[in-house]
Amino acid sequence: MPYYKNKTCIITGAASGIGRACALRLAEEGAYVVLCDIRNDMLTTALEDIKQSGGKGETHIVDVADRDAVFALADDIEARLGGADLILNNAGVAQVTAVADLSLDDFEWMMNINFWGVVHGTQAFLPQMQRRQSGYIANVSSIFGLFSVPRQAAYNASKFAVLGFTDALRHEMALAQKETGANIGVSCIHPGGINTNIVRHARWAQSPDAQTEHVKAIDQFSQFTMTQPDKAAKIILKGIAKRKARILIGPDAVYVDIVRRLFPSRYLRLMPFLTNND
After folding, report:
1. ∠ at Cα 20 (186, 131), nearest 5°?
2. Which of 4, 55, 198, 268 has a beta carbon 3.0–4.6 Å from 50's, enabling a disulfide?
3. Per mean pLDDT, which range of 129-138, 151-160, 188-197, 244-253 is the poorest?
4. C-alpha to C-alpha distance for 119 and 70, rounded to whole angstroms
């Protein structure tokens, strides 16, 4: 895809999973990739793989929940590289707890990364794109940003918020293009079951059976993952290049999107695999 050649692309949550796969593919397409995460060792490994395949890039230790750190990164990228052509706000975490047991600290932790991390990345890089009259903002939500399931209230809330925020931004950028000619694209990404470590690294409700439940969930998640990260990256980057407003990843994402549209209040009955505790 020549669309990405010589473009500066910023990716949060780039040390593993979808973020890492997107970084590798972007580098293959000739982009200069800026990998951001909090895991330095994994970032280093990802950049080494990029360079070994002939790609170019750099790494930054950035906590997307830290607004000042994200804005400092944006200032640095604009000063040294002329600004970002693409910001992929991908960093995210999981939380599995019933509403009655959900602590405010855990809820804030979830929202600070999954939602405010997207807001920080968007607001930090949007001004430089507006100055250049071009750019692209792609925000990762989830299929759980389209429908809700038990024990995922915090995760659902964060991912629904990403969808609402991104849709509003897309409408604003469409109006701005008519008024000023600024060509800033916006996509919201909804991955289905992707073979990543998100469940393995999830926070779990504190109970005597928490560890057992966590191990069981990891095993169940691995059984229901339908898409590998490299395939997800291919779909994401193709969708961005085509300027798709919404990018669904995986047959499961397509299925649940159709079901929840047809049965907006009864969809969970048609998706028992999401609540199966057997």
Report:
1. 35
2. 55
3. 188-197
4. 10
SS3 124: helix
Contact 23, 35 (CB under 8 A): yes
List all residues 6 or more positions away from 184 whose beta carbon is below 8 Å from its beta carbon.
Answer: 126, 129, 130, 133, 134, 135, 136, 137, 173, 176, 177
Find the catalytic residue in 4, 32, 136, 155.
Answer: 155
| Cβ neighbours of residue 179 closer than 8 Å, sequence gap 6 or more | none
Active site residue 155: yes
Entry pTM: 0.87
The predicted pLDDT at position 96 comes to: 86
What pLDDT, on the 0 to 100 scale, is given for residue 23?
98
Q: Which amino acid appears at position 106 of this protein?
A: D
The tokens 């966590």 sit on which residue? 214
